[in-house]
Specification:
alpha/beta, globular, KGD_C_sf, oxoglutarate dehydrogenase (succinyl-transferring) activity, 28 strands, 2oxoglutarate_DH_E1, 39% helix, oxoglutarate dehydrogenase (succinyl-transferring), EC 1.2.4.2, eight-stranded mixed beta sheet
Length: 909
């Protein structure tokens, strides 16, 4: 029970005593009580009403009226007029006077509690009307759960000052009408001209368009220079045309089935029109330049959330010097998706974290009250689809989509709040879906009662036109002319579209931050890239990076790690961590950005990296790479325990900054399956579908060490299954230097490709898995590493292998002094180095070739290589673990026996 409820039932003597204390010294009581008591002069109100003497009974009722005011602020959103097509669910207790211990008999009594809402002493009738108008009309506001008094007061004051929605100037009303007219007529035009074609129309939620327009205009006036929008398919064509400025002719050409200009070498396959992205530059009403980006998105609805956030964060870091007030993300959700898709929660949990925050996101929910065919009561357990907002204490405005001015007001307030407090804010736009999920569906099959109401319901444009005519803001002729002129424009663009043979790309990829880069050609893939550095620079950076400051106290084990790294310089044996960290150090030295995120990446899951170290006697951290030249561009963040959202975020980050080495590392390689949608829909296919290159690096720890099914395989077979047309790079490096070179190669080519690396676990400290200085300073990345321990004429069998098993085979080769077995490592699994394989076939002309892997036969690289090399001169057969539905055994003895059997078979001729 809160204080006010308690006091309303308490002995009035307490309140009398509090009032006496207030009279003696106003500052001696709480500020809320000061406001309550400050009008107690028992005289007359400004309206001439006499304030009754404060008897104990009346004082108690004052508290009850105050309780009512707070009750409306807390729960008024449950009793709003926000549903345009049906009655709201009933909630108890309600907002009847009796709920607050009041009655009709009190309606004309003057209460000083009116001071709380700025009315001064006022009749209960007027007080109640005030809070009804504020909290129970077209906008329902949820914000009282925010644990920040200043934020609550800001929203409360604004809501109560503008309780009847501010009377917009006529110019604003006409702009709202213009955008609403475009939204409604555009959908109507598509529906009649392209009958039966899927468009996932916005009909029933068209007020989104004037709302988005207002976000952009208001945001620009508050200093926002750029917006990045992420949304699913519903209403996307309307947003593309009427907000982003994508030419109507282009959209109509897509409906006509015209194809984009394609270069056969780039393997552009395209996508359906309501998945495509776009970007444009527009000018605001205040003559300010604004850049808009709409991220491409697949049918996996909310997948784009993390991508859009990553794009924004990348631009904050790269373009705006850390100032998040210059750019804002807008995420447009569906009601069913925002309530049920887990990535929404994952993304929202990132919003205040140092590695991922973007200064607050404007969330807009197109609330159709149905998901495909699922009723809202079956789509969630929460009261509202937006209850996820409470996780980050973000305010929510539920708005009737038919009251477009209320929506514009609420969304303007949302933008102000975002800019002021740098946190998320939600707009729940309550509308309906006039047709089925797509235009071929029959919604009456599943929602007959609802669709009887929708059939009779006028569209939002008709409602707003009628309102403006009644106000005298416009006349009938103005509205008719607006509609006629826009339909004529659309018809002209449609006629022009019919003459188009191929669609030109209005959103070139290789511009802006991508200027100077280009699409990859097939001939580029195998070309060597200069990634070596000078001996002087290597040694200089190695020493500087591993010399800890003397004035800071580190754990002895940490000090030893860095001392051991310095000793590597003397012994000329550099381990995996040194190879990796040197790649970062040299790229930073060349003025590239390096960003790494993932669970436990600062130390590394296997305690190998120690890129950030903590002092022994405090929580202060020290980052050696940040102290080097270019170190201000080094960022490494331990992520929240998410794969899906974080991987999407990093993809988005890399998509707008190709000059950043952007890395996501899975805690264990198999954990990447939590982000499989991002691999499938963006990483492997984004270039083919959307002509969008990306250079994201994914490090997936992999290797059979007897640690059971869940910590053995990164499922290499899955990434190879996605590999085609040189779309991604899949590697399994076995030396620190090769890993060093492949990381550097990502930024030293004039094109970008995603890179998946099966990184080691036990090899991190394997005495043989080391590289010398010359490997870093005189070589480049080697797709295939031949055996230097044998002579070709003596070899009877060539073992092709990849990854950790090489060292098990090497141990056997050296122990048995076998010169008749050549161990050849495939370091880059895809794209396949066919020329090098052919050269090996010629070199070892008399030898048989076998593929040896530690993974099960139905996993690892074998299924892919078996298919790709079928019928080749290599005539491969496989030695592997037996087929299995599980990646590895959970029993160490069985693991060791299986591993020994594979190794022994490899050497049995």
């Amino acid at each position: 029970m809160d204080k006010l409820t308690y006091l309303s039932n308490a002995d009035s003597g307490y309140i009398d005593a509090l009032y006496q204390t207030y009279k003696e010294n106003p500052n001696s009581v709480d500020a809320s009580w000061q406001r309550f008591f400050e009008g107690f002069d028992f005289g007359q109100t400004s309206g001439g009403e006499t304030i009754p003497e404060q008897t104990p009974e009346h004082t108690i009722k004052e508290i009850k009226v105050l309780n009512m005011i707070h009750g409306y602020r807390d729960r008024g959103h449950l009793f709003t007029e926000t549903n345009p097509v049906r009655e709201r669910r009933k909630y108890f207790p309600g907002k009847e006077l009796e709920t607050f211990g009041l009655s009709e008999a009190d309606m004309d009594t003057v209460f000083n509690a009116g001071v709380e809402i700025g009315l001064g002493p006022a009749k209960l009738r007027d007080i109640r009307q005030f809070i009804e108008d504020t909290y129970c009309r077209s906008i329902g506001a949820e914000f009282r759960y925010i644990r920040h008094p200043e934020k609550i007061k800001f929203l409360q004051d604004r809501m109560e000052a503008d309780r009847n929605i501010p009377n917009f100037p006529i110019e604003t009303k006409k702009r709202i009408l213009k955008k609403l007219n475009e939204a409604v007529i555009f959908e109507s035009f598509l529906g009649t001209k392209f009958l039966g074609q899927k468009r996932f129309s916005l009909e029933g939620g068209e007020s989104l368009i004037p709302a988005l327009d207002s976000v952009i205009q208001k945001g620009s006036s508050l200093g926002i220079e750029e917006f990045v929008i992420g949304m699913a398919h519903r209403g996307r064509l309307n947003v593309l045309s009427n907000i982003m400025g994508k030419p109507y002719k282009t959209i109509f050409s897509e409906f006509e089935g015209k194809m984009y200009e394609a270069d056969p070498e780039t393997q552009f396959g395209g996508d359906v029109k309501y998945h495509l992205g776009f970007s444009s530059d527009i000018t605001s009403q205040e003559n300010k330049n604004i850049h808009l980006s709409l991220a491409p998105n697949p049918s996996h609805l909310e997948t784009v959330d993390g991508v859009a956030e990553g794009m924004v964060r990348s631009k904050i870091d790269m373009k705006y010097g850390g100032d998040s007030s210059k750019i804002a993300p807008i995420l447009i959700h569906g009601d069913a998706a925002v309530a049920a898709q887990g990535i929404v929660y994952e993304t929202i949990q990132m919003s205040k974290l140092d590695g991922y925050k973007t200064g607050g996101t404007i969330h807009i929910v197109i609330n159709n009250q149905v998901g495909f065919t699922t009723n809202y009561k079956d789509a969630r357990s929460s009261t509202y689809c937006t209850d996820i907002a409470k996780v980050t204490l973000s305010p929510v405005f539920h708005v009737n989509g038919d009251d477009v001015e209320a929506l514009v007001y609420a969304i303007n307030l949302a933008v102000e709040y975002r800019q002021k407090y740098k946190t998320d804010v939600f707009i729940d736009l309550l509308g309906y879906r006039r047709y089925g999920h797509n235009e071929a569906d029959e919604p009456k099959f599943t929602q007959p009662s609802l669709y009887k109401l929708i059939e009779k319901h006028p569209n939002t444009l008709a409602i707003y036109v009628d309102k403006l005519i009644k106000q005298g803001s416009i006349d009938v002729e103005y509205a008719k002319t607006l509609e006629k002129d826009f339909r004529s424009t659309l018809q002209d663009r449609l006629e022009a579209a019919k003459t188009v043979e191929e669609i030109s790309d209005e959103r070139p990829m290789f511009a802006g931050a991508w200027k100077g880069l280009r699409p990859a050609r097939q001939s580029d893939i195998g070309k060597p890239v200069l990634t070596k550095i000078t001996k002087t620079l290597f040694l200089e950076l190695a020493k500087e990076m591993n010399t800890l400051p003397k004035d800071k106290k580190f754990f002895r084990k940490i000090t030893k790690v860095y001392e051991d790294r310095l000793k590597m310089i003397e012994t000329d044996k550099y381990d995996w961590a040194m190879g990796e960290l040197m790649a970062y150090a040299t790229l930073l030295n060349e003025d590239y950005r390096v960003r790494i995120s993932g669970q436990d990446v600062q130390r590394g899951t296997f305690s190998h990296r120690h890129a950030v170290v903590t002092l022994e006697d405090s929580d202060e951290t020290y980052t050696p790479l940040a102290k080097l030249k270019g170190g201000d561009k080094f960022n490494i963040y331990n992520s929240l325990l998410s794969e899906y959202a974080v991987l999407a975020f990093e993809y988005g980050y890399a998509s707008v900054n190709p000059n950043s080495l952007t890395i996501w590392e899975a805690q264990f390689g198999d954990f990447a399956n939590g982000g499989q949608i991002v691999f499938d829909q963006y990483i492997s296919s984004g270039e083919t579908k959307w002509k969008r290159s990306n250079g994201l690096v994914m490090l997936l720890p992999h290797g059979m060490e007897g640690q059971g099914p869940e910590h053995s395989s990164c499922r290499i077979e899955r990434y190879l299954e996605l590999s085609a047309n040189d779309n991604i790079i899949v590697a399994n490096c076995t030396t620190p230097a090769n890993f060093f070179h492949i990381l550097r190669r990502q930024l030293h080519r004039d094109f970008r490709k995603p890179l998946v690396v099966a990184t080691p676990k036990s090899l991190l400290r394997h005495p043989k898995a080391v590289s010398s200085l010359t490997d870093f300073t005189q070589k480049s990345f080697q797709e295939i590493l031949d055996d230097t321990n044998v002579t070709a004429r003596s070899v009877k069998r060539v073992v092709l292998c990849s990854g950790k098993i090489y060292y098990d085979l090497l141990e056997k080769q050296e122990a048995d002094k076998r010169k008749d077995i050549a161990l050849v490592r495939i370091e880059q699994l895809f794209p396949i180095a066919y020329d090098q394989l052919e050269a090996l076939r010629k070199k070892y002309a008399k030898a048989e070739f076998v593929w040896v892997q530690e993974e099960n036969e139905n996993m690892g690289a074998w299924p892919f290589y078996c298919r790709k090399l079928s019928g080749s001169s290599l005539n491969l057969r496989v030695i592997a673990r037996p087929e299995s539905g599980s990646p590895a055994t959970g029993y160490m003895k069985r693991h060791l026996a299986q591993q020994a059997e594979i190794v022994n078979k490899a050497f049995q001729i």
